[in-house]
Amino acid sequence: MSSKSFSRRGFLQSGAAAGLLWGSHLTGCAQLPIGKVRSSKARNIIFLVADGMNTGTWTIADYYMQHQNQQRSEWVKLYQEEAVTRALMETCSANSRVTDSAAAASAWSSGQRIKNGAINVTPDGTHLMPICDLVKTIGRSTGLVTTTRVTHATPAAFASIVKSRGEEDSIALQYLERGVDVILGGGSKHFDGAGRKDKVDLSGRYQAAGYTVVESRDQLLEGIEGVPRRLLGTFWPSHLPYSIDRNRDAEIASQVPTLGEMMRTALGILEQNRAGFLLQVEGGRVDHAGHGNDVGAIVHDQIAFDECIAIARAYTQENPDTLVIVTTDHGCGGCQLNGVGAAYVNTDKTFFAGIDAIGASYEHLQRVRESLSTDQFGVLVGECLQVNIDDEKHQQLAVAAKAGGYSVANLLRKWHGSFARTGVNWTSQNHTGEFVELCAWGPGSESIRRWIRNTDLHSVMTEALALK
Known about the structure:
With 468 residues, the protein is α/β, with parallel strands linked by helices.
């Protein structure tokens, strides 16, 4: 397919017009068969990660999509049609049965297990080449798209080397030095001189190196002339807002693109390189909602991620020489839908009505609290969570605000009580160690066994791209 026919704006518009890849319905993709694979070698790889997704999260998102739109999730459709290779993946790190995102993504990127918190640095201090560097050596392009800060652990592991995942200023600089072609997500503070510890205007350096730099959804979708060769887009100082908040707040929606919009744009740019590309796309805030035990946030961010599967499927219709991998790095929070009522007969009513009633994430309510009067905040929480904030609760919130962190959000979570309202409960606010789901299609997918270790995906990718 020519780069002109898959241009950034053309792909956005054609997807909307066809009604296949845009909006909340995602209709029609069940009729798109997976393209025939004629070779074990791939030109492109699209690596989709729903960070922190256990099967409980995936399940409740699929159920809620059926409730909303009478549609199954795209991931489930792939399984229904038996259109993909399917596997269970073990997610351990070098020093724990329960991994963090840095170690997990480094296992994919480098093929070795490392300790939690490190990125492509082994326990003995050896620096491992990230997968994006390998891809660049054969003249292909690379892209990182995420709803977290773009310098966060998962994208960072594909294209950087640091002893600690917290070295995000360094990671932002390494992306420039290593020539990552497309970088889209949150985390503008690590590119802005006012936010960086070294006060370097890194965005300016990217521009000087030939990158188009954008800072809003409008700039991303309408403000770029032609199709740039390289693009840096950071749309929020830290992680992008949750989808539930973006969907219901026009101000956020005008500033922040969806994950699907960023993915489409990235594909339109990377497709210009006829040698091929590696694109990593992360629904990173699924994990954060798991940490926060925020059922409204986790459902809507998982649904936003699911759209990316539809986009990948449509892309591979025209580009069957593309390997697509869809997975998660680990579970988070132990999210599960539990039976409600005698013989569990109240489960469906409780779940669907409970999710319908949630109007904001706990994090968003914490963020806007300081800008509202006491009465205004009480009204907002009542509308969004159906929780009455009386004088005693206002006093507790004031104490929590002084403590900092997510203290206010945690109080709101406690008062909301997701199990009583939705039937969804949690095992913890931590990562979990279960085997996770993976599916793949395209050249090289046939080599994936039914049960794999996270490190095995490195060789799947390098062999598919003929890097070995």
